Description:
The chain is an all-alpha fold. It is 64% helix and 0% strand. The chain has helices at 3-19, 24-50. The longest helix is centred in the middle third of the chain and has 27 residues, at 24-50. The chain is rod-shaped and about 65 Å long. The mean pLDDT is 88.
Amino acid sequence: MDIDSLVARINELARKQKSSGLSEEELAERAELREIYLSNIRSNFRQQLDTIEIVDDENDKGHQGKLKH
Length: 69
């Protein structure tokens, strides 16, 4: 299931919850869909963090550890 379909179904269940309530099966489906969605978000965020490269140039430290008074 692609992310757009997933979000659409979660929203559909949310609207139904507000209007008439959800059955036990629908509550279980909603919980499963939410977990899939959150897992996807966590995975994407982890991938973004993994691509970050910290660069520390030893020759460009500004005051090089000396404080100006």
